[in-house]
Each structure stands twice: as structure tokens, then as C-alpha cells.
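Please describe what follows:
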Amino acid sequence: MKYQTEMSDEKLIQFYLNGNPSAMATLVELYKDRIYSSIFSMVQDKYVAEEIFRDVFINIINNLMAGKATEEGNFLQWATQIAHQLCIEHTRKTKLAFIVGEEKETAEDAINFSVPVALPNTNYYESHSKIKSMISMLPDEQREVIALNHYAGLSFKEIAEIMKCSLTTALDTMKFGLTNLKKLMNEKEIVLR
């Protein structure tokens, strides 16, 4: 049984908790693109992003089964906050593994900023790839704020809550991120068409 997308997130969660798994499938369908895009933009690796995406919903289901529901009923913000925390954990583990030397990787392999393959003869995809490549070079916090705003579509108030900072800090981080992005583009002489 597929649920209408006009139904509130709270109702879908309630249906899920009452034994209707298709209600969770509806929530996943509603928000998968925004959540996955925000994860991918933070980790820059398709396979890691897919793994974290699955972990987000496993975490959500475990929380719901334990009686912990979304804060203020905002499912997308809750899911994105969980995704953000899982991305931070992944980044810390990756950096620790590199520092400790558990894996024999070069620095280039550990960073692994992958850029999706552009479609031939399309300026849009070429420009999009260049932008994503530049975003991946930003400091973690700046990259995260840009990802949460641009890819997940969250407001700066929601971003501030997820990152546990003030609204002003979230706005300033975005401003610095965009300024640094512009500098990187000028340094690399990248012109968007």
C-alpha cells in the first residue's frame, strides 16, 4: 500500500510504527534525493555515500522502534542531522586510519575526491563537475554548510541546529565557503559556461 505524498511525515511515521512498512518506503522516496545528495557532497565517494545513506535509515528505524521520534516533527531535518553525524564519523575514522597507517594509502587515495563523469558535449555537466570539484577542496565545515543548503535544501536555521552552532555562524561559514570557492575558481582559472 503506497501512501499519498500529501500526508504529513508524522502520519507516515505513525503508520510505520503501527506495522505498515510501506509508510517508511514513502518517506524514503520523498527525501532520498536530498539526503543522498547532501551525504555525497560531504564524503565525495559514491559507495561510501550509499553505505551512509542506508545507515541513516537503519538509524532512523532503530530510533523509532526505541520510541525516539523526530524533533519538532521535521523528518528531513532529523534525517539530515543523522546523515551529517554519520559523515563526520566516517571522516574521523578515515583520517584516523590514514594517520595511524592501518591502510597503505597515499594521501591522494585517502582524500579521494571523485567527480562524476560529465556527459559529452554538455556545458552544464562540465560546469557542474568543476563546481563539485572545487567544493570538495573547501574546509570540512564550509563544504558541509554548502552541501546542506544547496543539495539538501535546508534553511540556515536548520543547518545551525544540525551543526550545533548559531545562525550567524552558519551564515558566516556559508559566506566564507562561497568566498573561498570563488578564490579557488579564480586560482584555477575556471570559467563556468
